[in-house]
Design goal:
Oligomer: single chain
Largest sheet: 7 strands, mixed
Number of helices: 8
CATH topology of the largest domain: D-Maltodextrin-Binding Protein, domain 2
Structural class: alpha+beta
Distance between the termini: 63 Å
């Protein structure tokens, strides 16, 4: 099954690489504010689905662009697909994007592939068998102090996202770490934590196809992944936190209060902080 997923990811990657040679001619549509889809996303998803269902016609499919339109809706096996994670990067020619494919069996992720077509980097994992980058075993980093850690993130950009709360999170993490990066492709961000290139990652507003494959890479590389309060059942909760075990514990301590599952007092404290920020902004604009 992993080999079929690799074949599907490489087929999608070949399409993406060809389109990247003339990205100006790619047709782009807007799903909502700052949320783009291209003909390449759709073609890549078709290539993935055809490869997977060609091998496993009875399996289910959950794709970012087509949802559950294809495959067997009643199967215990469900392929979770993001055919082009980092579409905004792609349409600008910024070479940070990937194909993400995960296989879920009865709700548990069993196989994962994240493929970066610009670098020909292939991240793979199978439950209980470790995580790999181009067939070399990978492990999360060994850094123990947050002040030495490099953390990646993604900005919330959709209508309804709580941008002010995010900026407070961003400020807290920035002041406590060696640096924060915002590459723009969550599946690749998670793969980089698994490989030890970064020490942690956090983002809200993500969908299951953004995090399914990356989450298995993280755990198979010895890391931890969950929601902002540290609970592991996070795949469909739209908030994701990952890191090596020591960094993860410290990040939970900082970000837990911003979780939608935080306690009442934490939520009141965050709301009070946001209100104070608004008041300061109003005062400074009046000056």
């Amino acid at each position: 099954m992993l080999n079929v997923a690799i074949k599907a990811a490489r087929a999608a990657g070949a399409l993406i690489n060809r389109a990247a040679l003339d990205v100006e001619s790619v047709r782009v549509a807007q799903k909502q504010v700052n949320d783009f889809v291209t003909e390449v996303d759709k073609a890549a998803e078709r290539a993935v689905i055809e490869t997977l269902l060609g091998a496993y016609p009875d399996h289910g499919i959950l794709g970012e662009e087509t949802g559950t339109e294809f495959g067997n809706k009643n199967s215990d096996f469900v392929w979770i697909i993001d055919p082009l994670d980092g579409t905004t990067n792609f349409i600008h020619g910024f070479p940070v994007y990937c194909v993400s494919i995960a296989l879920s069996f009865k709700g548990k992720i069993e196989h994962a592939v994240v493929y970066d077509p610009t670098r020909n980097d292939l991240f793979t994992a199978t439950r209980g068998r470790g995580a790999f980058l181009n067939e070399r075993r990978i492990r999360v980093s060994k850094r123990t102090q947050l002040k030495d850690c490099l953390v990646s993130t993604g900005f919330p950009f959709r209508p309804g996202d709580n941008f002010r709360a995010y900026m407070r999170m961003f400020a807290e993490i920035t002041q406590r770490t060696a640096g924060v990066r915002r590459p723009g492709a969550a599946a690749l961000d998670l793969a980089y934590v698994a490989a030890g290139f970064t020490d942690g990652f956090f983002e809200s507003g993500l969908s299951i196809w953004d995090v399914a494959a990356g989450s298995l890479l993280i755990t198979e590389a010895g890391g931890l992944v969950g929601n902002f309060t540290g609970e592991a059942d996070f795949l469909e909760q739209a908030e994701c936190l990952a890191g090596n075990p020591r960094a993860y514990g410290q990040l939970v301590g900082i970000l837990g209060k911003y979780s939608k599952f935080a306690g009442v007092q934490d939520k009141m404290d965050v709301d009070a902080g946001i209100a104070a920020d608004k008041k300061d902004e109003a005062a400074s604009s009046n000056d």
